[in-house]
Design brief:
This protein has about 800 residues and is of the alpha+beta class. The protein is built from 15 helices and 35 strands. Among the domains are: about 350 residues, no CATH class; about 45 residues, no CATH class.
């Protein structure tokens, strides 16, 4: 997910809160030489080359993590194959720049849960003009809805029910805030590069609007947004709660209690406060929410002298901070404290000592990540180490304390997905690190699966069992269609002997996962984002949203350039766009439309995998030999797939886009339905030298590395299902177990509206959704309502399964 507005694109090289920042200029191989090797389809299908990859990776103790047999995994959920359509039958939705949500004929979408909606008794309806009491924001929906999961309830609402199709709980992320819409006037003292203090009440609102909402929804005939027995949310539900940027959360796993987690808030290093920039989600096999902390680094402040205080550029602290995008500089700029929360923090040891633990001052001080006191328990020098984790939340138990699962590694987490194992197998959690040039990961539990684990009511204890002990791996992709999972363990010689950063323990590896992955030579990817598991065959899909950062990566290795394309990231080309309301005319170069990689493990603990590129994003008329490799048409062309999810009922794959400037001259962000096959069902594509002429919409210069592409798509296997309003992204999708009710999030409509327009009540917003709509060329409205993020519910008018 992109936490940076399009108006700020020119400053991305300075913005650590954005995925567009490169912090891995010199990581693992780009496999240029491997790409040049001969590709043989028979060896790909038979899996040859795996032993060579293991040898290249070195030798380690892999007890409990063997490869297993090559038989296809059994389906994840019963009934999926029977419900999966042979072809998509709904009418494809046309591309659109209208300020509305468009779904196919025969479907209905309704808004059910918006930014600021009250989640407790006695909380007033949201004013939408920034005049609500800041103390109520921790009991309202957060802002910028993102990843979402549905947790079913029985019809009485008293217990978890796997077949709960009429009532359930939504667990959803709130990634960041659109400041100009939260306050009565323009947000105060947000000028970059100054230390003017932000007002406490504004900061309190913004902190509370981050995090997670747990909210009950149900079919109803009365209440919020209910129409004729359709769905609405339950404002007074006992399940409702917010986990915000200030909530107490436990640290769990190998790093719990480590000296690097000691802060003034938790001198024992066992707890922290708040979860931030929550993006993708996961649904655990035992019924908990896995929420992922993504671009957290830009919330914290380090001054220009902090590197020196920590021992200089080669010290472990500074190497780690830089690898995670934590620069130094004045407060409230793109390198630090993006919202200016740190302007309320004490800046000296004496100032911090004056604030009592858990006081208002302490809430502010934690944004100051400088080393200022004599010992770590007196300041927040280690606060960065308390962010960047997968956080587990029990949506059914309001009294269960959330836990940050450190065994799963620390990075810019984007989704955490798990295939259902057979009884007696370990479980595997697949994760992406959403930054250009970073990696795919897999965590394999030590514990093995039993039937009782799925139905336990002590869900956080089951989380302890499976998520606190195991082996974390990082992926290396080979050009022959095979890959290897490299263990990130302190016993791995490449990690134990690393010189750029000296690891001293497994906790070090968990806390500095990116540096460990660098050390073992993992494959750099084009912004790994959401993952999903195909329930028909347990194959793992990951979106690679884009990498057109060649201009910002001069001298580095991570930006996609013609000299570092590889089999898993094979395209380099340019794409031109026309001007829109929020983007100027320009050219994106590198891999601006992104692609989707899929891989197959023989079992959850396998240490080798096979892979191909399932789908390439492209404009329909782009060069078919180098760019539009999947054969997209006007019914299904798209840019920058981000959200990704498979229906457990129908087996349909749902793709959502987050486009910050590549395809917006043709369409707002969208959601598509797909019917994919399996790894190896397509073709080997030979390398293509740089073109010398314009081909369709593609300028000269496009080139392709040899790669492996899935079967070409058709409008019957991939088509556009939804187009959202203006200046937004479609992000997060889930459904009821029967597949007849779908929930989708729409994030930050109108975010490119200048704050001055909002403050002056000009009403000239780029979007008015969800409270009003307008066609793209209609005149501005002087009385237009402020836009906001929202959850919509989609149903088929005949009551059938969505997408069939």
């Amino acid at each position: 997910m992109n936490a940076t507005t399009r108006a700020e694109v020119s400053q991305l090289s300075q913005d650590p809160s954005s995925e567009d920042l490169i912090t891995n200029p010199n990581g693992g191989p780009d496999f240029l030489n491997i790409v040049k090797a001969r590709l043989d389809r028979r060896s790909f299908l038979r899996g040859s080359g795996a032993s060579a990859m293991i040898a290249a990776a070195g030798t380690w103790s892999l007890a409990g993590c063997g490869g297993g047999d090559d038989s296809p995994p059994s389906p994840q959920l019963t009934g999926v194959a029977a419900n999966r359509p042979s072809a998509l039958a709904f009418a494809a939705v046309a591309k659109s720049r209208d300020d509305r949500v468009t779904v196919p004929e025969g479907y209905t979408s309704r808004v059910i849960f918006r930014t600021g909606d009250p989640m407790a008794a006695g909380i007033s309806a949201y004013s939408n003009i920034g005049t609500d009491d800041p103390a109520t924001y921790s009991r309202r929906s957060g802002d910028n809805h993102d990843g979402i999961e549905y947790f079913p309830l029985n019809d009485a609402g008293t217990a978890r029910d796997a077949n709960g199709n009429n009532r359930g709980i939504l667990g959803m992320n709130h990634e960041y805030v659109t400041q100009q819409f939260l306050h009565a006037g323009a947000p105060t003292n947000t000028d970059r590069g100054t230390d003017a203090v932000r007002p406490q009440n504004e900061v309190d609102r913004e902190v509370a609007m981050h995090g997670v909402s747990i909210v009950e929804v149900m079919k109803q005939t009365a209440g919020a947004f209910a129409v004729n027995g359709t769905w609405g949310y339950v404002q007074t539900s006992a399940y409702n709660r917010r986990i915000t940027g200030a909530t107490r959360i436990e640290m769990s796993g190998p790093a719990r209690g480590d000296a690097q987690l000691i802060t003034k808030f938790s001198p024992t290093g066992t707890a922290t406060r708040g979860t931030l920039n929550n993006c993708g989600t996961g649904y655990s096999l035992w019924g908990t929410l896995l929420t992922c902390e993504e671009n957290w680094a830009g919330y914290l402040w380090r001054d220009t002298s902090d590197d020196v205080r920590r021992g200089g550029a080669t010290s472990g602290d500074v190497v780690s901070a830089r690898r995670y995008g934590m620069g130094v500089g004045p407060r409230k700029n793109f390198n630090n404290d993006r919202y200016g929360w740190g302007t309320l923090a004490a800046t000296t040891a004496a100032g911090m000592a004056a604030n009592q633990v858990q006081s208002v001052g302490d809430l502010n001080d934690r944004w100051n990540a400088n080393l200022v006191a004599a010992t770590a328990d007196l300041d927040y020098r280690n606060v960065a180490n308390t962010f960047g984790w997968v956080v587990e939340i029990d949506p059914y138990n309001v009294n269960a304390t959330p836990k940050k699962r450190t065994a799963l590694g620390r990075f810019a987490h984007e989704a955490a997905v798990t295939a259902t194992p057979k009884v007696g197998e370990q479980i595997a959690v697949y994760m992406g690190d959403d930054s250009r040039g970073d990696y795919f990961y897999k965590f394999v539990s030590t514990a093995t699966w039993t039937e009782a684990d799925a139905s336990s009511t002590n869900r956080m204890a089951i989380g302890d069992k499976f998520l606190d002990a195991g082996i974390l791996y990082v992926a290396r992709f080979n050009a022959d269609g095979m890959g290897v999972w490299i263990p990130l363990t302190f016993s791995n010689p490449a990690i134990a002997s690393a010189t750029n950063f000296r690891f001293t323990s497994q906790a070090d590896v968990c806390l500095n996962t990116r540096l460990a992955a660098d050390a073992v030579g993992a494959t750099r990817m084009d912004r790994p984002e959401w993952g999903a598991i195909n329930p028909l065959n347990n194959e793992v899909y990951f979106t690679l949203t884009e990498n057109n950062n060649s201009a910002l990566s001069s001298g580095g290795q991570s930006g996609r350039r013609p000299d570092n394309i590889d089999a898993a990231n094979p395209r380099f080309y340019a794409d031109t766009r026309e001007a829109t309301n929020s983007t100027t005319a320009g050219t994106n170069t590198g891999n601006p439309f992104g692609h989707i990689v899929r891989l197959r493990d023989a079992n959850p603990a396998a240490t080798t995998f096979s892979w191909d590129v399932y789908l390439f994003g492209a404009q329909a008329d782009a060069d078919p030999a180098r760019v539009n490799l999947s054969g997209l048409s006007s019914a299904n062309d798209f840019a920058r797939a981000d959200g990704l999810w498979f229906s457990g009922s129908t087996g349909i794959c749902w793709l959502q886009t987050d486009d910050s400037g590549a395809f917006l001259d043709q369409s707002n962000c969208m959601m598509l339905a797909a019917l994919p096959g399996n790894v190896g069902d397509g073709a080997i594509l030979p390398a293509q030298a740089a073109s010398t002429t314009v081909v369709g919409s593609t300028p000269a210069g496009a080139q392709l590395a040899a790669t492996r592409r899935g079967a070409a798509v058709t409008p019957s296997t991939l088509r556009r299902f939804l187009v959202g309003p203006r200046d937004q992204e479609i992000t997060g999708v889930t459904e009821t177990p029967d597949g007849r009710t779908m929930f989708v999030n729409v994030q930050h409509p109108g975010e490119d509206t200048p704050a001055a327009s909002v403050a002056a009540n000009l009403g000239d917003f780029t979007s008015y959704w969800p409270r009003a709509e307008r066609a793209p060329d209609s005149a501005p409205r002087a009385d237009g309502p402020r836009p906001g993020s929202a959850t919509i519910v989609i149903t088929k008018n005949d009551g059938g399964r969505v997408g069939t």
